[in-house]
Amino acid sequence: MSRSNVTRRGVLKTGAVTGAGVALPTIFTASSAAAFTNEPTGSSVTLGFNVPQTGPYADEGADELRAYELAVEHLNGEGDGGMLSTFSSKALQGNGINGKKVEYVTGDTQTKSDAARASAKSMIEKDGAIMITGGSSSGVAIAVQGLCQEAGVIFMAGLTHSNDTTGKDKKANGFRHFFNGYMSGAALAPVLAANYGNDRKAYHLTADYTWGWTQQESIAAATEALGWETVNNVLTPLAATDFSSYIAPVLNSGADVLVLNHYGGNMVNSLTNAVQFGLRDKMVDGKQFEIVVPLYSRLMARGAGENVKGIFGSTNWHWSLTDEGSKAFVKSFGTKYGFPPSQAAHTCYVQTLLYADAVTRAGSFNPCAVEEALVGGDSSLPGISSEANRGFLFDGLGNGQTLYRADDHQCFKDVLVVRGKENPTSEFDLLEVVEVTPVAQVWYEPDHPMFAGGNLGECNPGA
Amino acid sequence: MDGFLLQVLNGLDKGSAYALIALGLTLIFGTLGVVNFAHGALFMIGAFCAVTLQRVLNLSFETIDETKTDFLGNPLKVKTPYVESWFGPEVGATIIDWAVPLSILLAIPVMLLIGLAMERGLIKHFYKRPHADQILVTFGLAIVLQEIIKLWFGANPIQTPPPEALMGVANVGAIVGLDLPYPIWRIVYFCFAAIIIFAVFAFLQFTTFGMVVRAGMADRETVGLLGINIDRRFTIMFGMAAAVAGLAGVMYGPINPPNYHMGMDFLVLSFVVVVVGGMGSLPGAVLAGFLLGILESFASTTWATTTIPGINQIIIYLVAIIVLLTRPRGLMGRKGVMEE
């Protein structure tokens, strides 16, 4: 009869030792490789470009992707270098980011929050993206920004104009270069008052989501402060295509200005409908009826065609600017693609460069180090007396001196007031810059009521 | 009062598009028994016939203007349309100006051909398959068509303005002393829709071909036993339905600039229109189209949206539920359709 040497105690001991042996390397690996999410260990680093490739903003998304590809080229030392030569920070040398070659993956947001989060999640978890960037919808940007905060990666917002992105929904891992609804209102209202007078009655049609609400609130507040009266604000569904039912009541409302808080296809259709109903030829109490589109884009202007002529709006950037940074970017982009870049392309290109520059100056991809480099400086905008006037000050990227503010990760810079051009010389020459509103005029404090309620929180390095 | 009448006009206008699409859907369902989810795509392709003709008429040759520069600082390339070069600037400009109405001449044969090709190439293979299969395949086809259009024309809306003579507004209430300014093109669209609807009914009612089709719709088997090739006629009806949807799309372009997604925007609502009107009922489709168009228009007024928030987005479905609860076959539905 044989006797087994296997005892219960022996099995437990062996199991414990084996388990620890198997687990130990993993623990070490985890602690060393997971100092932060997706720490790059090879010779390359992956960025995630999350833009609308399908859906109503697909053209805008395509332009953003072009800009990202151009930025990657320039970061890797290819092409003519674009804004690398005009950027006030000279950390970027065209040898990738921190010596690592820049690669990228793309995702399709479909202009839907859930789809955008899913594609961002996939890029982070499967492709190892160290930074996510993209935009064209504030709803999407806010959703993806929240995801990046949880995942521990940096989010460099593309085109997002809602006050909430760096207001009540701001996050420590999120950064916005693009301007916002408040800034549009502050820049646009004085120009409107100067051109149309202080005694006006405005009727607002507003896209029914975060961007529309905050823009309407901003424009109404800014114009009311100058004497205008807001006679009505009608929320329109984002999916609306025919706005005739919303335009018809404007005719008998007593209003003499129609403010279209619409973007993309909504704006093209609502403006077309408004013009069809003869609003631009209408007189109300001896005053010429006017239409205002607070947020303009060249791509939208192209869609709206003749209808944009003479209509005021605001924009973050325009290809006709003559500063060295803008000229360098337009030359790079125009030579590569055959047409000038949109404001969406510009902000995405700039955000990529700003991220790369911050990583290089920080000497690390760690999101907390990147945050410190992006907004942690002590520099400030000249001429603005405020405790909140501190962060990272830079120049040469197309908007003049710009501050990445520490308190809310919002960029502060001059804002352009534009008008649909009466006699365009080409298919791209649709808007003319009528005023460059100085940054001091669009400045606000972080606790401004339109931005209050949020909490930036702490940066999350993930893992 | 003026505001009320304006919303009625808006509703008639919206209803025109619903009625035309629903008419085509009903024609196809009534003849071939197919639930065609690609019908919205046909409406969209019609609109892009206008875009295509507009682009063809604007085909240009380039000359260099040394006195001006483009955005990169190079000498400006000035484009002159060939039609202006061939027919003179004035006649050429007029032809380009009337691109949308002229597109009707292009859209009719194109849409007929697309309709026939769809029916012969794809849909005929699904006659004996369940409705779910038909819906899936036609929905898939709609997505393919819309992606092709997006690939060629991009995702942004493209302006197809009406002729200058038909721009602006007309006071339609002047006769009765009311101030009712309404866009001329929308009036044109409503009249156009009325003519098309009348023509379809007249064709079915007063021609031998139409009589055979109606007989086939009522009893396909018996008509077949009489030695009539009813399948061929039904195929032609599919082409005609496609042409009706296409024409609706062509003329809709100046109202809202065409984009690749416009078909889907109308498709679901048009199906609701068909169901409310009564499956297989042509007058029902037209009646429900105008009725739901008007109701949707009123539901979008400030008064309605403040009284019941969100009513503008659910009104059509709400009415559909009420109609189906009270009249399960729809407003003018016939017994036996989709009931076996």
Automatic annotation (TrEMBL), chain A:
Leader sequence range is 1-35
Specify the protein name.
Branched-chain amino acid ABC transporter substrate-binding protein
Its GO biological process terms?
Answer: amino acid transport
**Annotated ranges, domain Leucine-binding protein:** 45-421
Organism superkingdom: Bacteria
Q: Which UniProt keywords apply?
A: Amino-acid transport, Signal, Transport
SUPFAM superfamilies from the entry? Periplasmic binding protein-like I
Family of this protein: Belongs to the leucine-binding protein family.
- Name the InterPro entries for this protein: BCAA_transport (IPR051010), Leu-bd (IPR028081), Peripla_BP_I (IPR028082), TAT_signal (IPR006311)
Under the heading Pfam families, the entry gives: Peripla_BP_6
Automatic annotation (TrEMBL), chain B:
> How does this protein sit in the membrane?
Multi-pass membrane protein
| Compartment(s) where it occurs, according to its Swiss-Prot or TrEMBL record | Cell membrane
User: Which Gene Ontology terms of cellular component type are present?
Assistant: plasma membrane
Give the UniProt keywords, A-Z.
Amino-acid transport, Cell membrane, Membrane, Transmembrane, Transmembrane helix, Transport
Q: Name one Pfam family in it.
A: BPD_transp_2
TM segment ranges: 15-35, 42-61, 95-114, 189-213, 233-254, 266-295, 307-325
Q: Name one GO molecular function term.
A: transmembrane transporter activity
Q: Which InterPro entries match?
A: ABC_transp_permease (IPR001851), BCAA_transport_permease (IPR052157)
Main localization of the protein described in the UniProt heading: membrane
- Swiss-Prot/TrEMBL GO biological process terms: amino acid transport
User: From what superkingdom does this record's organism come?
Assistant: Bacteria
**CDD domains tied to this protein:** TM_PBP1_LivH_like (cd06582)
Matching entries from PANTHER family are given as:
ABC TRANSPORTER ATP-BINDING PROTEIN (PTHR11795:SF442), BRANCHED-CHAIN AMINO ACID TRANSPORT SYSTEM PERMEASE PROTEIN LIVH (PTHR11795)
Give the similarity note: Belongs to the binding-protein-dependent transport system permease family. LivHM subfamily.
Put simply, this protein is called: ABC transporter permease
